[in-house]
UniProtKB/TrEMBL annotation:
Signal peptide: none annotated. Gene3D superfamilies: YVTN repeat-like/Quinoprotein amine dehydrogenase. Coiled coil: none annotated. Keywords: Acetylation, Repeat, WD repeat. Pfam families: WD40. This is Uncharacterized protein. WD repeats lie at residues 263-299. Transmembrane segments: none annotated. SUPFAM superfamilies: WD40 repeat-like (SSF50978).
Amino acid sequence: MTATSDPNPEVSDEQQQRSEIYTYEAPWYIYAMNWSVRRDKKYRLAIASLLEQYPNRLQIVQLDDSNGEIRSDPNLSFDHPYPATKTIFIPDKDCQKPDLLATSSDFLRIWRILDDGSRVDLKSLLNGNKNSEFCGPLTSFDWNEAEPKRIGTSSIDTTCTIWDIEKETVDTQLIAHDKEVYDIAWGGVGVFASVSADGSVRVFDLRDKEHSTIIYESSEPDSPLVRLGWNKQDPRYMATIIMDSAKVVVLDIRFPTLPVVELRRHQASVNAVAWAPHSSCHICTAGDDSQALIWDLSSMGQPVEGGLDPILAYTAGAEIEQLQWSSSQPDWVAIAFSTKLQILRQVLLIQVHNTMRHYQSSHNNNHRFRVCHWYYIYDRQSICNSDLNSLRETLNHPSTLEQMKSQ
């Protein structure tokens, strides 16, 4: 199946080429998704099915930017036992290691994509339960970018397991929470955090395996935390999602127990969160209201009347289940809803936010500008202080602002 970019009659052909939405329709409901980070595999993603049966499917698709089509390769589409709860390509930008893909479901599986792209082979099946051939289903995992031989998994059996995938052995297995563990994220070589049905965020240091630090506990009873994102650009901050909640809680690990800010502009449950890979103060959230929102958190911690507003909003065709921000090409965000994968190029999104300081001085009301299919939302307080002088001259030109105003 292939897909082409959605047309936009409001912009020129040159602008159309630079700012697009590319859509791919899979033959099944998409759940797990991940960008490849390899420099020789631009615009490549893995998507996995959510089927109520034992055999599920996983596809590796790639955008051909010369013609704007997302293509699947039959050689890189394969069966997967049960739905994959998560999938991640090996964090190897410089292509120094084999081309690997990991998935979690009943077990942690490592797949190898052959160099000639002819097929995908199962390299390892890793079971953390030493006393049985079965194990508690894995809810999630994270691949350590600083030390790619390490993968951490989370399980409904209350444990987190740290694997050495090169030796195919368990480094450490911890009883991490009192209830099911729903997500795990690395914050460095030997530090990871997890969230659980017990409503807590806990940080673990592998140098002291007997103790953990509780960073946050939900104040609401029976409020499982289901997703966790750790800010790679500024590891002081992480974000978590509460089950069936429309808010995202942002935490500063230096000040446990109290959120530094709560993001409350979604109108339905939030399903996914992704920190910007190139900026320490931007985060994207997505949920059942079909909205993907990008936020500037540079002013978090300062009181904002009425709460913080997003700076960009995109409306999908259905509830957004998955969200990924490309670390190798930060212009691109991918979302999955229903059977569709969309790749969104949000060119100038941070830059436009920075530029509006000059335009806001004579306007008191909130405004929306359509920029590359995203909607830029600003008010007089939402100013990004990023150093973007190289782009400011172009964006500050009156014709640029007037063009955005008219869209």
